[in-house]
Amino acid sequence: MSHIMEHWLEKRAHLSPHDTAIETVTGEVWTFRQLRDAACDLAKRVASIGPKETSHIGILSNNSVDMILHFFACTYLQCPAVFFNTRLSIAELKQQCDIADVEMLLTADQYHTIGKELADEKNLPHYTFREVKQCQPLSISVATDIDLDVVCSMMFTSGTTGIPKAVMHTFNNHWSSAISSALHLGLYSSDKWLACLPLFHIGGLSIVIKSVIYGMPIYLLETFDEKQVHDAIMYQQVTMISVVAVTCQRLLHVLGDQRYPDTFRCMLLGGGPAPKSLLEQAREKEVPIVQTYGMTETCSQIATLSASDALRKLGSAGKALFPASLQIWQDEKQQSTGQIGEIVVRGPMVTKGYYQRPDANQSVFQNGWLYTGDVGYVDDEGFLYVVDRRSDLIISGGENIYPAEVEDVLLQLSAINEAGVVGIKNQTWGEVPIAFVVLSETIDQETILSHCKKNLASFKVPKQIHFVDDLPRNATNKLQRHRLKEWGTKHQA
User: Fold this and answer.
1) What is the pTM of this model?
2) Which residues form the AMP-dependent synthetase/ligase domain (predicted)?
């Protein structure tokens, strides 16, 4: 049975047509009615290019009003939008186009060349945002209702194999995420959420969807810039912002001895466990940090600390949002208070699965629960503490790096016999990847790095290459990453 609801942008344009939807740092202002009218118009122009209903439309863009408009145009055409990280290499983008069965590509004007190369290789229709606007609109009726069970968007995450998986987000996932966040954080008529996280990440896109569902303005930045963010909080009545540890650190530095205005009520900190020293520094500066736990598969936050508990439970990611559930499991047994194990979650904001990956779906989803692969424990009051973001995962500036993916690229070079990649602590980024390689023939570091830069996003390229005779392995020849981490720490010292 389908669950039908009026299209959110249609409903919002009807309820509060003249309220502000988007503000930009350049002074551009969009109302909800203007947003709806422009998105509907774009939908008719995209339709003239010829996507079928339910076609997967790829979007490659940095944060912009145009990106938001093209996303909503896809929803009006009932075509899932597939978001690409602009920092990926051509090789990575080609792979993701295949995985998600992308049938059309829309790009920001600045990515015209990359888009053309992708489109030519994959024989895809490709249009820049400017070219879409020049298309003649098709005389059609766009969808004014949405089916909550239908896939709205897709974003990529990697598994331990390093092969990206397309996470499917239904309209219901987005709806449930927005509602559960409002139930927890509250919703004030004065709220304005600053969006500086990339919209091609779930933390960024969720702000756009919250804006339409709540009737709340967002202050949109193309990228994170600490001075622009600081000024927005101080002088543009921003009340909420989503950050990761490294961006939070930069904001605290810019803040110095100043204090944020009383109207600023929440800095949501996610993207991995935050250093305790950072949280203590924020407390000293009276910055209202609220830690969260979430992932692409949970459509943004699924557990969040209450502001009232922020000081008392420093380091905790809070409790599962209403109506989500959270447990800790290890060796097929639910763990007791204080015992460390794998974090498992369920709730209407959790994805129904990975696109065309029954193998991954079978291993990750069990008895209605999502096994996150993340490690943590719950204290005697039910507060979650995240110990690690998967043992192998490297989180650098909020971006996820899977060692197996980098190792696969290194092993493409015939001169490299074995490769092991781990993260080492870095003051700026939290962690950065380094590589240990065993050679079968002579090759220099510059050649290896050049190959990596061609095939990986810049943040995934190893910051150090160490040549070794052997990699540490156990009796079953499994790579012992913990020993590689020890080696990396010694090299740092």
Assistant:
1) 0.86
2) 9-355
